[in-house]
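seq as requested:
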Amino acid sequence: MRGERVEQIVHVGETVIEQILSGELDEPFEYDQDHDEWVVVLRGAAELEVNGERLSLKPGDWVLLPRRTSHRLVQTTRGTSWLAVHLPGQ
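C-alpha cells:
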C-alpha cells in the first residue's frame, strides 16, 4: 500500500476518532489543520516534523498537535497503524 487510508471510527459532536493505516509515502506530506489532534502509533513507525523538530515515533508514542500547528509526515514504515482523535478547535 502507498500513501494513507483513513477510516472514521467514531463521530460524536465535533470530536472524531479515526484509524489511519500508512503505507510507503511517495514524498513528505504537509498538514495544517483547524482542529487539535492527538495521535498515537499502534504498530509500525513514523517520522514527523513539528515546528522544525523531527520526532521518531514507535508503538505507544503519541503527540498532541494543537490546531494550526504546521507539521509534516516525513516517513512511515509499511503497515503503520495510528489512532487519531480530532478535537474541536477553540
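The domain at 4-87 is CATH 2.60.120.10 (Jelly Rolls).
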